[in-house]
Amino acid sequence: MATDKKIALVTGANRGIGLETARQLGQKGITVIAAARSLSAAEETADKLKAEGLDVVPVKLDVTKAADREAAAKFVADHYGKLDILINNAGVGDDLFNQKVSETSEEELLKIFGTNVFAVVAVTRAFLPLLKKSDAGRIVNLSSILGSLTLHADPNSPIAGVKAFAYDASKAALNSFTIHLAAELKDTKIKVNSAHPGWVKTEMGTEAAPMEIPEGAQTSVELALIGEDGPNGRFIHLGQELPW
Questions:
Q1: 7-92+127-144+172-241 belongs to CATH 3.40.50.720
Q2: How far apart are CA 130 and CA 84, in angstroms?
Q3: Which family is it part of (predicted)?
Q4: The pLDDT of residue 90
């Protein structure tokens, strides 16, 4: 059933930045489809946010599984007829501090790239026909400042000492996807951007991180709601552009 209300889908919405992104979008009056690898996790998330008065619907979506992607896209098509916002939030990381590039295994690369790159491309492809039916489609890819080749190449940059090859390279590849897809869709109403949430107190970021989760979700939410004159094909953190 078609609706005039904005519809957003957030992958990995059951915890951390994904959960908070779903919450903040719901607080803006948007219908949020909370996607998680298991239906029970998605339902638990939806129940939690519905208890806060938000319009949230659960869907099972393991982003690495073609059957899940197809079923989730069909669910959105059948119930809403469009998708206005896709937040590619789901991702995995490796040991960000104690792994040498020469010791990074093929298995590790395939695992990290499988979720952080290949699955994002596949999820986006599955939902693109529905995003094209939106009056203002928005795609937000959750990247990381650790994907910046410019900053990694600068020995004086704040991330120079953090070299986790599999994770960093996957985010650099994700950024490349953002650039290429934005160029492909430049004559449409869809905008595509990469978001660096910051170093956030999540399971991956640890309690050592300086940012709280609500602030970590802010960049994704802002990019999801940009207007016609907003950025496209850019790498953003809290309103500021980062170098690729």
A1: yes
A2: 8
A3: Belongs to the short-chain dehydrogenases/reductases (SDR) family.
A4: 96
Name the residue ranges covered by the structural domains of the chain: 7-92+127-144+172-241
CA gap 105, 113 in Å, rounded: 12
Distance in angstroms (rounded) separating the CA atoms of residues 208 and 192: 31
CA distance 119 to 115: 5
Average pLDDT, the chain: 93
Spot the catalytic one: 6, 80, 167, 191.
167
Catalytic residue among 171, 186, 189, 191: 171
Alpha helices in the chain (DSSP H): 16-27, 39-50, 66-80, 106-113, 119-131, 149-153, 165-184, 213-224
Residue 217 contacts residue 17 (beta carbons within 8 Å): yes
- The residues pairing with 88 across neighbouring beta strands, listed in sequence order, are 141
